[in-house]
Amino acid sequence: MTASRKILLASLTAATMIGGLGAAYAAKPRVVIGYENNGADPYMVTQSLGLFQKTIPANVTLKFFASGPAAMSALASNSLQFMCGLGVPPFVAGISQGLPLAIVFNQERYTTAAGIVVRPGKGIKTVADLKGRKIAIAEGSQSSFELATFLAEAGVPFGSVRQLNMSPPEMRVAWTTKSIDAAIVWDPVFDALRGLGGRVLKTDAELPPDASSYNICIADTKWVAAHPKLATDFVRALDQGVTYTKQHPKKALAIMAKAAGVTLPVAKSELAGYQIFSAKDQTTQNVLGSGSNVANSATTKTLENTAKVLLKIGRITSLPKNPAEAVEPRFAAAAQ
């Protein structure tokens, strides 16, 4: 065989191999997973260790969002299959509009990792003292529900507080320029504002489990109905992050700190501010529930109670028809 013929044969073989690989790549479904930075969270372990890519037999892409409302726009346009680190209010707003979405994994309940931080020296000692004050809030996010709930408990009209809509990173800047008196936010910015001298007025630990603040992973219900195995693999990858965090706490904290852009002590504090849920926890009554009990689970009740608050303050125009239909524990049950 001549040298030129050998070169030609080698080229054809390589082209065939590349074409085969390309065809195999194209044959795999595409999975886009959105996420927020909620501080030290087992999700960060799943993401950093590449567990989504290792567990889900698909072309997996991760996409960052600064807030829940921004992610909901992407979900509405069908450009995401899953979204994690989402607060309950944006999700409620979505399903109240009829978007085909469901919670497939409740990541954690906020306890001391979110709440209201106030500037010292402003005379804000109670929630009632927020009247007329400038408070930063990510409108449409979990903070809308939290603020409305805390103000209602204190008998303070929702509209009596000067609310400034901004993202968590913008809140940090506004705090340093002294253009806000308070902020209602979550980690890592909640922790950062405390580090800048802020005083905690309220934390989410004071909210009941059935009207609480959760980070949730949601899915496009039409897509998961067509790809139930991939949805189960998605939940399994999340659970692997939870398991790793429990079995290797020091290594997990180092991973979370790096991913969230915080120090180890801060990551430890942030993680302590969450009640973390595993795949096994999902089917209990304190999380998603199972079977007919889904309707009375803590997650479903939180959807109902959040919707009532959002309707009252004008964030939504109608209540979701059946919140229980937007809570889907079957993939967690299969992942166990």
Overall number of domains: 2
Q: Biggest sheet, in brief? A: 6 strands, mixed
- Residue ranges: pLDDT <50 for 5 or more in a row? 3-21
Going across the major beta sheet, what is the strand order? Answer: 2-1-3-10-4-11
Please state the structural category.
alpha/beta
Might you state the CATH topology name of the largest domain? D-Maltodextrin-Binding Protein, domain 2
> What is the count of β-strands?
11
Tell me the name of the CATH class of the largest domain.
Answer: Alpha Beta
Q: Give the N-to-C terminal Cα separation.
A: 58 Å
Order of helices and strands: HEHHEHEHEEEHEHEHEEHHHHEHHH
CATH superfamily of the largest domain: Periplasmic binding protein-like II
Q: Strand content of the residues, in percent?
A: 15-25%
Mean pLDDT: 90
Alpha-carbon Rg, integer? 22 Å
The name of the CATH architecture of the largest domain is: 3-Layer(aba) Sandwich
Helix content: 40-55%
Subcellular location: Periplasm
Keywords: Signal
Pfam family, one: NMT1
Protein name: ABC transporter substrate-binding protein
